[in-house]
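Table S2 (continued). Query chain:
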Amino acid sequence: MSDEQREQEAAEPQRTAEEMELREAAPDEVDDTKSAPEDREVAGPFDAAEVPAMRPYVDLGGIKVAPREGLQLRLEVDERANRVVAVSLEYAESLLQVQAFAAPKTTGLWHGVRGELTQQMSAQGATVAEESGPLGPELLVQTTATAEQGGSRTVRFIAVDGPRWMLRGVLMGQGATDAQARERVLEVFRELVVVRGDQPMPPSELLPLKVPAGVQAQRTDAPDGAQPA
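Corresponding output:
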């Protein structure tokens, strides 16, 4: 064996150790697969191309809502940006605030957004737990309420990745903690229709919403996590 070969063999363990160290130091890759129930295309939430055109909906632009008895609807308007940023649905003694975001065609947003929300809420002192729900992974968040409210507040984040969009809901009230109430609210969530449109939009961009005639617009600050990224 030549001196050159001996030097190469001696250097090999050092290179291997350096490569392993680099691999261990590399950040974890973000899961960009779509998160959605297997029956989404037939049970919702739906893409605009998946529902009959003649079915009645309340048209809010990027989101359409199927009317049902007992369902109260209002729009949340961010005064600073002067635009509608969310749809609030009151049903089954619960409040469901929904937003739709642009997403890539073949990859999803919810897995990555969930990690960002966990970091954001934890940094604010909230307790965050991931749970498995009927639509996929959920986040159960317990935050400390203000002195006027007393106690703590529990909210549940749910979301579904569809074709070129993600629909996210923030569930408050009974539906956040009571399984029966949550099941009723999820029926409303699964009847929603997302209208992505054909215009190019960057991932995580909020789909535009509009105020139709007869719908109350509630002026407010932008909701927690109005943008997922």
